[in-house]
Design the sequence.
Protein backbone atom coordinates (compact mmCIF):
# COMPACT_ATOMS: atom_id res chain seq x y z
CA UNK A 1 0.00 0.00 0.00
CA UNK A 2 2.98 2.33 0.54
CA UNK A 3 5.62 1.15 -1.96
CA UNK A 4 7.48 4.50 -1.75
CA UNK A 5 8.48 3.94 1.88
CA UNK A 6 12.22 3.35 2.18
CA UNK A 7 13.15 2.52 5.77
CA UNK A 8 11.28 2.65 9.06
CA UNK A 9 12.89 4.73 11.80
CA UNK A 10 10.23 4.30 14.48
CA UNK A 11 7.65 1.56 14.75
CA UNK A 12 4.06 1.86 15.85
CA UNK A 13 4.92 0.20 19.16
CA UNK A 14 7.87 2.51 19.86
CA UNK A 15 5.74 5.57 19.17
CA UNK A 16 2.81 4.36 21.29
CA UNK A 17 5.07 3.61 24.28
CA UNK A 18 6.77 7.00 24.06
CA UNK A 19 3.46 8.88 23.73
CA UNK A 20 2.26 7.18 26.93
CA UNK A 21 5.44 8.30 28.76
CA UNK A 22 5.09 11.85 27.48
CA UNK A 23 1.44 11.95 28.55
CA UNK A 24 2.36 10.87 32.04
CA UNK A 25 5.08 13.52 32.37
CA UNK A 26 2.95 16.29 30.92
CA UNK A 27 -0.04 15.49 33.16
CA UNK A 28 2.22 15.42 36.22
CA UNK A 29 3.84 18.77 35.36
CA UNK A 30 0.55 20.51 34.61
CA UNK A 31 -1.07 19.12 37.76
CA UNK A 32 1.91 20.43 39.72
CA UNK A 33 1.43 23.91 38.26
CA UNK A 34 -2.23 23.82 39.10
CA UNK A 35 -1.52 23.35 42.81
CA UNK A 36 -1.20 27.13 42.97
CA UNK A 37 -4.50 27.77 41.17
CA UNK A 38 -6.71 24.76 40.62
CA UNK A 39 -9.12 26.76 38.44
CA UNK A 40 -6.54 27.73 35.84
CA UNK A 41 -7.61 26.31 32.49
CA UNK A 42 -5.49 23.94 30.43
CA UNK A 43 -5.37 24.67 26.69
CA UNK A 44 -3.73 22.37 24.16
CA UNK A 45 -2.67 24.00 20.89
CA UNK A 46 -1.78 21.62 18.06
CA UNK A 47 0.01 23.11 15.06
CA UNK A 48 -1.90 21.92 12.00
CA UNK A 49 -1.67 19.77 10.08
CA UNK A 50 1.30 17.66 11.12
CA UNK A 51 0.46 17.52 14.85
CA UNK A 52 -3.01 16.00 14.31
CA UNK A 53 -2.10 12.36 14.83
CA UNK A 54 0.18 12.94 17.83
CA UNK A 55 -2.42 15.21 19.40
CA UNK A 56 -5.19 12.64 19.01
CA UNK A 57 -3.09 10.03 20.80
CA UNK A 58 -1.50 12.32 23.39
CA UNK A 59 -4.62 14.02 24.70
CA UNK A 60 -6.10 10.60 25.48
CA UNK A 61 -3.13 10.06 27.81
CA UNK A 62 -3.93 13.28 29.69
CA UNK A 63 -6.54 12.77 32.40
CA UNK A 64 -7.10 16.53 32.70
CA UNK A 65 -9.94 18.92 32.03
CA UNK A 66 -8.61 20.60 28.90
CA UNK A 67 -9.67 22.34 25.74
CA UNK A 68 -8.19 22.22 22.24
CA UNK A 69 -7.52 25.23 20.03
CA UNK A 70 -5.71 24.75 16.77
CA UNK A 71 -3.29 26.99 14.94
CA UNK A 72 -2.35 26.51 11.30
CA UNK A 73 1.18 27.29 10.17
CA UNK A 74 2.53 26.60 6.74
CA UNK A 75 6.17 26.29 5.89
CA UNK A 76 6.52 23.70 3.11
CA UNK A 77 5.05 24.79 -0.20
CA UNK A 78 4.02 21.72 -2.21
CA UNK A 79 6.58 19.04 -2.96
CA UNK A 80 9.58 20.50 -1.17
CA UNK A 81 11.51 18.95 1.68
CA UNK A 82 13.08 21.96 3.34
CA UNK A 83 11.55 24.81 5.31
CA UNK A 84 10.60 28.04 3.52
CA UNK A 85 9.94 30.11 6.64
CA UNK A 86 6.82 29.97 8.81
CA UNK A 87 3.53 31.80 8.35
CA UNK A 88 0.40 31.73 10.52
CA UNK A 89 -2.65 30.86 8.41
CA UNK A 90 -5.92 32.16 9.80
CA UNK A 91 -6.52 32.98 13.45
CA UNK A 92 -4.18 32.58 16.37
CA UNK A 93 -5.93 31.34 19.58
CA UNK A 94 -6.72 34.33 21.83
CA UNK A 95 -7.42 34.95 25.54
CA UNK A 96 -4.73 32.67 26.89
CA UNK A 97 -3.75 34.91 29.82
CA UNK A 98 -3.50 32.95 33.08
CA UNK A 99 -3.98 29.58 31.34
CA UNK A 100 -1.67 26.60 31.12
CA UNK A 101 -0.79 26.20 27.48
CA UNK A 102 0.81 23.23 25.76
CA UNK A 103 1.83 23.62 22.11
CA UNK A 104 2.10 20.37 20.14
CA UNK A 105 3.96 19.91 16.87
CA UNK A 106 5.13 16.94 14.87
CA UNK A 107 8.80 17.88 14.47
CA UNK A 108 11.35 20.50 15.43
CA UNK A 109 13.59 21.20 12.46
CA UNK A 110 14.71 24.78 11.72
CA UNK A 111 12.76 26.05 14.74
CA UNK A 112 10.91 28.70 12.76
CA UNK A 113 7.43 27.21 13.19
CA UNK A 114 7.51 26.62 16.93
CA UNK A 115 9.58 29.77 17.49
CA UNK A 116 6.89 31.88 15.85
CA UNK A 117 3.92 30.24 17.59
CA UNK A 118 5.63 30.37 21.00
CA UNK A 119 6.54 34.02 20.59
CA UNK A 120 2.98 35.05 19.67
CA UNK A 121 1.40 33.00 22.46
CA UNK A 122 3.89 34.18 25.09
CA UNK A 123 2.77 37.77 24.38
CA UNK A 124 -0.65 36.83 25.80
CA UNK A 125 0.93 35.98 29.19
CA UNK A 126 -0.26 32.42 29.82
CA UNK A 127 0.35 31.02 33.34
CA UNK A 128 2.66 28.43 31.79
CA UNK A 129 3.77 27.70 28.25
CA UNK A 130 5.30 24.40 27.23
CA UNK A 131 5.93 22.63 23.96
CA UNK A 132 5.84 18.98 22.98
CA UNK A 133 7.17 17.51 19.73
CA UNK A 134 7.28 13.92 18.61
CA UNK A 135 10.55 14.36 16.71
CA UNK A 136 13.58 16.61 16.93
CA UNK A 137 16.24 16.95 14.27
CA UNK A 138 19.86 17.76 15.28
CA UNK A 139 20.81 21.20 16.63
CA UNK A 140 22.74 21.89 13.38
CA UNK A 141 19.35 22.11 11.56
CA UNK A 142 18.20 25.00 13.74
CA UNK A 143 17.95 28.52 12.27
CA UNK A 144 16.24 29.70 15.43
CA UNK A 145 16.86 28.39 18.94
CA UNK A 146 13.74 27.18 20.72
CA UNK A 147 13.34 25.41 24.04
CA UNK A 148 11.07 22.38 23.87
CA UNK A 149 10.17 20.68 27.13
CA UNK A 150 8.96 17.34 25.77
CA UNK A 151 10.64 15.47 22.92
CA UNK A 152 9.56 12.03 21.77
CA UNK A 153 12.64 11.08 19.74
CA UNK A 154 15.83 12.66 18.45
CA UNK A 155 16.26 11.64 14.81
CA UNK A 156 18.97 12.20 12.19
CA UNK A 157 18.66 14.94 9.60
CA UNK A 158 16.53 12.96 7.16
CA UNK A 159 13.18 13.85 5.63
CA UNK A 160 10.57 11.62 7.27
CA UNK A 161 6.87 10.93 6.79
CA UNK A 162 4.09 9.13 8.66
CA UNK A 163 2.19 9.56 11.92
CA UNK A 164 0.93 12.96 10.77
CA UNK A 165 3.97 14.06 8.75
CA UNK A 166 3.38 14.46 5.02
CA UNK A 167 5.17 14.71 1.76
CA UNK A 168 3.18 16.90 -0.62
CA UNK A 169 0.04 16.20 1.44
CA UNK A 170 0.34 12.40 1.51
CA UNK A 171 1.54 9.70 3.94
CA UNK A 172 0.05 11.35 7.04
CA UNK A 173 -1.89 8.15 7.71
CA UNK A 174 1.19 5.91 7.51
CA UNK A 175 1.35 4.67 11.12
CA UNK A 176 5.14 4.66 11.58
CA UNK A 177 7.92 7.18 11.05
CA UNK A 178 9.82 6.40 7.85
CA UNK A 179 11.89 7.82 5.02
CA UNK A 180 10.82 7.87 1.38
CA UNK A 181 12.73 6.37 -1.52
CA UNK A 182 14.67 9.15 -3.28
CA UNK A 183 12.89 8.40 -6.56
CA UNK A 184 9.49 9.05 -4.89
CA UNK A 185 10.65 12.52 -3.88
CA UNK A 186 12.14 13.28 -7.29
CA UNK A 187 9.01 12.02 -9.08
CA UNK A 188 6.66 14.08 -6.91
CA UNK A 189 8.75 17.23 -7.39
CA UNK A 190 8.43 16.83 -11.16
CA UNK A 191 4.71 15.99 -11.09
CA UNK A 192 3.37 18.73 -8.80
CA UNK A 193 3.01 22.43 -9.09
CA UNK A 194 3.79 24.44 -5.96
CA UNK A 195 0.89 24.45 -3.50
CA UNK A 196 0.78 25.08 0.21
CA UNK A 197 1.27 22.46 2.87
CA UNK A 198 0.66 22.85 6.61
P1 LIG B 1 10.65 24.10 11.25
O1 LIG B 1 9.82 25.35 11.18
O2 LIG B 1 11.13 23.71 12.63
O3 LIG B 1 11.74 24.07 10.21
O4 LIG B 1 9.77 22.92 10.73
C1 LIG B 1 8.67 22.52 11.31
C2 LIG B 1 7.69 22.03 10.27
O5 LIG B 1 8.33 21.61 9.05
C3 LIG B 1 7.03 20.83 10.84
O6 LIG B 1 5.83 21.19 11.49
C4 LIG B 1 6.80 19.97 9.63
O7 LIG B 1 5.55 20.30 9.06
C5 LIG B 1 7.87 20.37 8.65
N1 LIG B 1 9.00 19.40 8.63
C6 LIG B 1 10.26 19.58 9.11
N2 LIG B 1 11.00 18.47 8.93
C7 LIG B 1 10.20 17.57 8.32
C8 LIG B 1 10.37 16.21 7.87
O8 LIG B 1 11.42 15.56 7.99
N3 LIG B 1 9.29 15.64 7.29
C9 LIG B 1 8.10 16.28 7.12
N4 LIG B 1 7.13 15.59 6.54
N5 LIG B 1 7.89 17.54 7.54
C10 LIG B 1 8.93 18.17 8.13
MG1 LIG C 1 3.83 20.90 10.16
Sequence:
Amino acid sequence: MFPEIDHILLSREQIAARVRDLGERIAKDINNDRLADADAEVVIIPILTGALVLTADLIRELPLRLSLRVVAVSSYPGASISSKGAKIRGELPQNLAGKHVLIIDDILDSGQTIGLVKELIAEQRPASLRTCVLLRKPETCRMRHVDVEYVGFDIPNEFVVGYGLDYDGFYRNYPQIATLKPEAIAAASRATKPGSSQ
Notes: The pocket of guanosine-5'-monophosphate (ligand 1) is lined by residues 47, 50, 75-76, 83, 86, 105-113, 159-161, 165-167 (CB under 6 Å). The two ends are 24 Å apart (CA to CA). The chain has a mean pLDDT of 92.
